Fold this protein.
Amino acid sequence: MAMIETPRSQYGQIAELLLRRIEDGTYPAGSPLPSEDRLADELGVSRVTVNRAVGLLRIAGHVKVKRGSGTLVRALPMIHRDAKARYAARAQGTGAGDVEARFHNLQSKTVYRRIAETPAPEDVAETLGIKKDQPTLIRSRVLYANDEPTQIADSYIPWTIAEKSPELLNENAGPGGSYERLADIGHGPARFTEDVTVRMPTDEEQRVLELEPTQPVFQIWHVAYDGKDRPVEVTVHVMPGYLWKLRYGWDE
Amino acid sequence: MAMIETPRSQYGQIAELLLRRIEDGTYPAGSPLPSEDRLADELGVSRVTVNRAVGLLRIAGHVKVKRGSGTLVRALPMIHRDAKARYAARAQGTGAGDVEARFHNLQSKTVYRRIAETPAPEDVAETLGIKKDQPTLIRSRVLYANDEPTQIADSYIPWTIAEKSPELLNENAGPGGSYERLADIGHGPARFTEDVTVRMPTDEEQRVLELEPTQPVFQIWHVAYDGKDRPVEVTVHVMPGYLWKLRYGWDE
DNA sequence: CAGTGGTCTAGACCACCAC
DNA sequence: TGGTGGTCTAGACCACTGC
């Protein structure tokens, strides 16, 4: 990371200094950084410059600001998500998305925000091969690890399919989860695709995921196809970029 | 994106305003934004505030600053990368990584930076199951589309394998590319994994990819295993986040 | 040389938090 | 109420570009 010694900006160098101190334990995980005023004094620069340096650390997810209180060093470790393995585990009855959390010995929590019939947004409709605003079942939830939000997951199922399995309207869709319910009614997923992008969070995502306008998020556009290759479910995952490592694998 | 009407920061609102103007064609792709001084005048704010607003657009990749000259609206469209398809195409003789570029009618270019024997970095060594600093063949290249850098790709092959196929030392490794050469010597790739992360670019990546310190990059840690499930190649792809959509798919 | 963005400062006011 | 970070300003100096 460190280079020969370009005439770097002060805020860039200060960010590096603070990062070194985080990594060598001067500022341990979970502890607060010194206040920006104090750092400005110590380093002989204005607070604006310190603020900008801290901004770099925030973008990268190294620290998290508690408004009015202070700036804390990130506590959560990076979470691994193995696309294939997680759905395999799910098929064996493991609950939704706490596969990853358990692996890391984190306490997992899922909060459902909304389970209801809703008109399909345009992009979802296109993926599902139905018309915009045709009815779908939405299952929208937020996942937490150690009480910190780790992802938003919004699933959409065409209503003509979903209505055949009333259990899909429950938070707990029963043994094996919603994919097993789809299997019950002859639409068990046989093939998946995921499109991964990075982007800046929307205002809502900033609020829910406790992110800042400058912190990039992963978006995973997950599509499940049944045995006749008909798209039967779309799930949009939005997750803080610094928090996740996504694993994919294939043969041949 | 837009919400009820939170008391948003000025720079945030200005960023939204500028983005609207980009999207509605007021500032077309490839054209310059008005200077920050002019915008500050027009909007009745200080230049620092405009600078900060433009900073948000830069992070998201909507504009690109030409130092000393001006700020341009991004011209390149998003590039799709289908992990499975690209290696399939490669096996049929298509050159390295211009699969995606061709799809988008972009002019593609590959510049090799280094093809040489080199000691394995620690993380590469760990993946390849060899010891740190044991010799590997590195093939390091930068890919461009329409003369803009789109990715850095550094491939490592254990030297004990690579030395059996001298063509791997050529920029053009022959028909079918380097994977065919590995097949020639009994190490044809049979299985792949990719680990995807987002992070901030290093100084070198900023320079090569013409990025700014705040623009996130995708890192793809690509590993090829031969028929005996021995790791025979690691490729690290680093690419501007705003530029790519990564597609993965699997059955069952 | 003039125009552009990059950075820095000192000072200010605000919203939010904990006490 | 005092401490924290969020934001804004006016003014300044710099490096780089293109003429």
In short: The first strand of chain A starts at residue 63 and ends at 66. Chain A has two domains: 10-73, 79-247.
